[in-house]
Structure formats: structure tokens, C-alpha cells
Design a protein that fits this description.
Helices cover 39% and strands 23% of the residues. The protein is α/β, with parallel strands linked by helices. It is globular. Bound molecules: zinc ion (ZN). The site of zinc ion has 6 residues, from loops.
């Protein structure tokens, strides 16, 4: 007999290690670690502080959102259905210029709450003042990889300040909150940072032993500008300056040639695929199947909540599969099981934390979600992966655990006052528009 903290008994367990599903499974958690995953009938006897009844439910790793700007929840629904540059220039950039650190914190609280309530346990973020996002992550108990965004300003002193502040935040906050918070540096994009600045950021990241998070090959127009300015496209430019490597997380990678895909694979660059934002901003359809065939690791991201407009990964995972089917005119590509794998195991790999989370395995941290299948849109269960990817939404998530701690149970958030966050966020967003 073994003493543990939590036992989840019964239900279908999806470890996401392979295609298998364990009917009438059992997961046992001691402190922050998974100590048993398998058949309930074959498990040792556990004495648990808490037993969760899993019958009629699916238990799987928490979803990993590989690219977002979580504080942009405040801009959700503003100036919709516009061309990308006009939307940025006329609405987003002027509002971002007014953002105070406290606003970024409130936006992050709202985004973290939304992610928690829709089954995302870990996310990668890029934005200003990630120390404020870290505060929200710390409070709500999620796991995150945060990249302070760096954009080259006309004013050199301003750029220096941004770089310096990013380095200070990374130094101070990387590997904090019981290891839940990690940092990267976030050069915004090749079109918004000069090669010299990119080189300096790359060097700083090496020194700090943190990764890099960048937007890459998102827009055809902006890529053309890069080519006109430097004579080469974004990926060869990054290769030339020695920027590419296994700890680079590149968001989008839509407009890439066969040769560029080979370069990404050779340097083991990780890719975040953001299907909903790519469609909404009409940027194009990434060739994910080609990237995967070349051996590139790909995770899934929502992108910012102002260009999605949701942080519900279930919606995005469904779209991830559908967009590839239409991209290749082939209904067999990116099947449900693979899409869910990209949102769990592969997402963890893309963030370099596959040894810690991403699957339900002995010794891994207990980041998991429980989904109630007793719903009209989730029955019958002929194919559990198809139900989760094509039929489920984030609001079907019943219970969420991160690092062994229950953050939501039976849809009741246990770590914060939900009402207060909603009120604060509404007020902050209104104030931003008025003042
Ligand atoms: Zn983005």
C-alpha cells in the first residue's frame, strides 16, 4: 500500500505516448509527480488524500499553447475584419503605447483564466513586460514560457532599454514558481529587428541559457520588404547570422520554400502553427505536413486573443487539422490523434520541456485535464480522439491539475476569485479606450 495525494480512478486515460487509450484507467499523483498510470485493475493499492471519480470521463495531458500574446485579451473584438497592417497601425499599436504594467497584468489574468477554464495548462507568450504576465501565471498556477518582446525602435536608447529589461526579467524569473515559469528572449520578427540586434539577442540568450521566440515568415508583404532590404529572405538571413538552433521557437513559418524547410529541419528549429490566426488575418496556409516530413517539431498555438479571438485550444486544434486537409486537398492528413499529439506531447517538445510534461508518464509532472464525456455532443465514443478533436470544446473541461495542484474542479476555479478578474478586466479595457 502506498500513500499518495490524488488518485483519479476509472475513465479513459490517454497518456499521449502512442495511440493507446487505457479503459478503466487509474492515475496516481504524489506531490507534483505522476507515480502511476495504467489499468485500475492492475494498479497497486493506493491510500489517497483525495480520490477523483473518472468514470465517463477522459483523462489526458493538459494542452500546450505554443504561441500567444495573452494580455491582448483586452483588445478582443476591437476593429475586426481589417487588413493586418491597418489593424496594427490604427488600433493595436496606439493602444499598446498606452498600456501600463498593471493593464498587462490584468489582461494576463483574464487570458490565464480563460486558458485554465479551457484545458490549457502551459503556454508560450511573447509581449512587453512579461514580469507582469509571470505574476498572473504565478497566481493562477499555470505553467508558461515567457518571452519579453523586443522591437527595434527609431530611438536607439529605447531599443537598448527594451533589451536590457528583457535580460533582467529573464535573469530574475527564469526557472521560478517551482519551475513552472521559464523565460526566453523574444525578438519580435526579422522585419522589426535589424540583423545586428538579432545577433545581440541571440548572444544574450546563449549567455542566459534561455531559448528564443520569434515571428517568422508570417506575411508575404513583410517578407518581401526583408528581401528588398537585405537581399535574402528571412530564414537564410537568420541562418547567415547564426541565429537558428534547437532552442529557437518560430511562430508561423507560412511562406517557406522547400530549401528553407530543410534549413529549419537541419537546425532543429521548433515551429508554432497558428491556424485560426493565419486564416483570420488571411496570411496563408502553412505546409505543416511538409515540415513534419522534413523532421521539424511542430506545436499548435492560438496566437493573440485579438487575432483568434479565443484562447480555447480545442477550437484551434480542430482548425489545425481542418486547415491542413484543405491545404493538401487530402482528408487523411493531420488526423485527430496526431492533432491532439501536437497539442500535448509535441507542444512540450517545441518548448523544450518534453522531459517534464506533455504526456502522462511515470515521473513526469502532473499537468492533466479531465473531460466529462456525458454530453450530447460527445457521445457515443467510437473514437475518443475524434470526439476530443472534432466535437469537444474547452468548456467540456471539467477538472485541471498543474504540477500536482488542482486549479479547477467540476468547473469551479479553486485558485482565484473568477468574478473579480472578469470585473477588473472589463474596467481596464474600457479605461484604455476612453483615456
Ligand atoms: Zn504572434
Amino acid at each position: 500500500m502506498e500513500n499518495v495525494d490524488v488518485v483519479i480512478r476509472g475513465g479513459v486515460v490517454l497518456p499521449m505516448k502512442g495511440r493507446g487509450a487505457i479503459d478503466d484507467g487509474l492515475v496516481a499523483i504524489k506531490k507534483d509527480v505522476i507515480v502511476y498510470v495504467g489499468k485500475a485493475s492492475k494498479s497497486p493499492r493506493f491510500i489517497a488524500e483525495k480520490v477523483i471519480e473518472g468514470k465517463g470521463k477522459a483523462i489526458l495531458p493538459g494542452l500546450v499553447n505554443c504561441h500567444t500574446h495573452v494580455s491582448m485579451t483586452l483588445f478582443r473584438g476591437l476593429a475586426e475584419d481589417q487588413p493586418l497592417l491597418r489593424w496594427l497601425r490604427e488600433t493595436i499599436w496606439p493602444l499598446e503605447a498606452k498600456l501600463k504594467p498593471e493593464d498587462i497584468y490584468v489582461g494576463a489574468l483574464l487570458g490565464c483564466l480563460e486558458m485554465l477554464k479551457t484545458g490549457t495548462t502551459c503556454f508560450a507568450d511573447m509581449y512587453f513586460r512579461e514580469d507582469m504576465v509571470a505574476k498572473a501565471v504565478q497566481e493562477l498556477g499555470l505553467r508558461a514560457t515567457l518571452a519579453p518582446g523586443i522591437i527595434e525602435s527609431q530611438n536607439a536608447a529605447q531599443t537598448e532599454k527594451m533589451l536590457e529589461e528583457s535580460i533582467i526579467a529573464a535573469k530574475k524569473l527564469h526557472a521560478t514558481a517551482q519551475g513552472r515559469i521559464r523565460f526566453q528572449l523574444g525578438p519580435h520578427a526579422v522585419y522589426s529587428c535589424s540583423p545586428e540586434l538579432l545577433k545581440r539577442i541571440h548572444k544574450a540568450a546563449l549567455r542566459l541559457r534561455v531559448g528564443l521566440h520569434i515571428h517568422l515568415a508570417e506575411s508575404e508583404d513583410l517578407a518581401r520588404q526583408v528581401k528588398e532590404k537585405y537581399g535574402v529572405t528571412e530564414i537564410p538571413l537568420l541562418k547567415k547570422i547564426g541565429f537558428l538552433g534547437p532552442s529557437v521557437l518560430a511562430a508561423h513559418c507560412i511562406h517557406v520554400s522547400k530549401q528553407e524547410i530543410k534549413t529549419l529541419a537541419k537546425h532543429q528549429v521548433k515551429v508554432a502553427y497558428n491556424p485560426v490566426a493565419n486564416m483570420k488575418l488571411a496570411q496563408g496556409m502553412p505546409s505543416i505536413v511538409d515540415l513534419l516530413e522534413a523532421g521539424v517539431s511542430v506545436g499548435i498555438g492560438t496566437d493573440g486573443p485579438a487575432s483568434n479571438n479565443s484562447l480555447d485550444m480545442f477550437q484551434t486544434v480542430k482548425t489545425a487539422s481542418l486547415l491542413q486537409k484543405i491545404r493538401y486537398r487530402d482528408s487523411t492528413v493531420l488526423p485527430a490523434h496526431q492533432a491532439l499529439e501536437m497539442a500535448t506531447r509535441d507542444g512540450a517538445k517545441v518548448l523544450g520541456i518534453e522531459n517534464i510534461v506533455g504526456t502522462l508518464e511515470l515521473g513526469k509532472k502532473a499537468d492533466l485535464i479531465i473531460i466529462d464525456l456525458k454530453k450530447p455532443h460527445l457521445l457515443p465514443v467510437h473514437d475518443i480522439y475524434a470526439n476530443l478533436v472534432y466535437s469537444a470544446t474547452g468548456s467540456d473541461v471539467d477538472t485541471v491539475m498543474v504540477n500536482g495542484k488542482i486549479l479547477m474542479e467540476n468547473r469551479q476555479v479553486t485558485v482565484t476569485d473568477e468574478e473579480k478578474i472578469l470585473e477588473k478586466a472589463q474596467k481596464t479595457a474600457q479605461n484604455l479606450l476612453v483615456h
